[in-house]
Structures are given as structure tokens and as C-alpha cells.
Specification:
Length: about 250
């Protein structure tokens, strides 16, 4: 979309505009879902709402690091909270999966994912994201781990991990080689250490030891979030916030 063009807002976006009590000729921002923000001037009310694009620039709401969050199925409100806050903090995508100790897995997972996607859509608008993160699911734990392990920095948060902490994982280019650290400022300057991060967190009951062992064998780093055991909805939010802060995105 280029400056000078006119766009027509759909019913949902028009309702959002009305809720903000914007008046004709006032400016507002439209995100195209591809990482661009369009500054628009609201047009007249003729049944539908229209707007004129004034200028376009890359979205300020998108972080410099692409972080996908893998969350084990949990009870309703807990999962909704984790998805909502992950989107607010800048997650590129949210992937749900089944784990051995999951307390609640919905019978109709497709319906559940659709509801969570709606929450992601609404949250992305509210917090000024330039993209709407996709909420998806993996059929099995194995599929989720194999997918997550492809990230530049694959992090598997395990409550029984005692040696490797998140700060250490973020600081070291090569885990096990303390002579080769890379700091957040350097990461922002050269962008060469890792551009993609995966965050895997478990269900209410935590991970089984064999699941953690499989994650290690797949190439993931088992990481601790500290001496306190966090709730399943808190862990992904805490991890993502720390990553965004460390990489200069907060």
C-alpha cells in the first residue's frame, strides 16, 4: 500500500475505530500484517469507514529477534493468559503441543486453537504489533521438539535443570565455551549470533525426565528459570520477557 491510496475498513476494524471514538480527519495507524505500519487519515462515514494512507514505515512493534513460543496444553484461562502475554511481548508464533503430564487437553483442539488465534488477533491490534502471530499446534511432543530445535537458539525450560541458566544461555555463543560470550549489545550490532529463538515450556505437572532427555538429544538446551518453580502460564511469559530485554527489544 502506498501513500495517497484509500482503503476501506472491514466491519471488525470499523467497530474498533468507533470504540476509539475517532473522528473524520483524525490520524490512526493500520498494520498490514507484513511488518509495515500505515499512518492513515480517517475518512467520512458512509455506511462503511474509509481512510487515506498518509505514509508507510516499518512497524516499531516488531522485535529484531524472531521468537517462537511452544506451550504445552494447559487449563483454559492459563493457556489464554500465556498466549495473550506472549503476543504482547513480541512472540512471532505460538505453537501448542501435548506433553505426558498435561492435565487438560481439549477434545476439539482445532476449536481451541481457533479461539486462541482470535485472542492473538485482538492482542496484536491492542499492543501495536506489525504482524499477527499465528497460533498453531503440533500433533505430538516429538514433532514440537523437532521443530523447535531448528531455531538458532533452541531453549527447553526444564524445572529440574540446575546447571544452565537463561542468562548463561543468552550470553554464550557456544554453550560450554565460556571464552566465547556474546552480550546483548553485540547481538544488536552484528545480528550474527542468533536471529531465531525457540522457547519450550511444560504443562502444570512439568516435563517427564525422558522428555527432557529427548529434547537434549534433538539439540535443544535444557535451561533453568531460577530456583523458584513457575506456574505453567508464567514460565513462557518470564522467559520471553527476559529474551526481549536482553536483545534490546524492551
Amino acid at each position: 500500500m502506498s501513500a495517497g491510496r484509500t482503503i476501506r475498513l472491514d466491519a471488525e476494524d470499523a467497530a474498533h475505530i468507533r470504540s476509539l471514538r475517532l473522528r473524520p480527519s483524525e490520524l490512526f495507524i493500520v498494520c498490514d500484517g507484513n511488518g509495515n505500519d500505515h499512518v492513515c487519515r480517517l475518512g467520512g462515514h458512509c455506511g462503511d469507514l474509509v481512510a487515506e494512507i498518509i505514509e508507510t514505515h516499518p512497524s516499531r512493534g516488531e522485535p529484531s529477534v524472531a521468537c517462537d513460543v511452544y506451550i504445552a496444553f494447559a487449563k483454559g484461562e492459563r493457556l489464554e493468559y500465556a498466549v495473550q502475554k506472549s503476543v504482547e511481548l513480541g512472540a512471532r508464533g505460538v505453537i501448542l503441543f501435548k506433553s505426558e503430564r498435561c492435565v487438560a487437553v481439549p477434545g476439539d483442539t482445532a476449536k481451541r486453537v481457533a479461539r486462541l488465534q482470535k485472542i492473538a488477533n485482538e492482542t496484536a491490534k491492542q499492543c501495536g504489533r506489525g504482524r499477527v502471530p499465528v497460533v498453531a499446534q503440533k500433533g505430538t511432543f516429538t514433532e514440537a521438539i523437532e521443530d523447535a530445535s531448528q531455531a538458532g537458539l533452541p531453549l527447553y525450560f526444564y524445572e529440574c535443570e540446575e546447571e544452565l541458566h537463561l542468562k548463561q544461555a543468552l550470553e554464550q555463543r557456544n554453550i560450554g565455551n565460556p571464552e566465547s560470550p556474546i552480550r546483548g549489545a553485540e547481538l544488536m550490532e552484528n545480528g550474527a549470533a542468533y536471529k531465531t529463538v525457540s522457547v519450550v515450556t511444560g504443562p502444570e505437572g512439568g516435563f517427564e525426565p525422558y522428555e527432557a532427555e529427548f529434547a537434549r538429544s534433538a539439540g535443544m538446551l535444557t535451561v533453568s528459570l531460577g530456583p523458584r518453580v513457575l506456574r505453567c502460564e508464567t514460565a513462557p511469559v518470564a522467559a520471553l520477557a527476559a529474551i526481549m530485554f536482553y536483545t534490546g527489544n524492551m
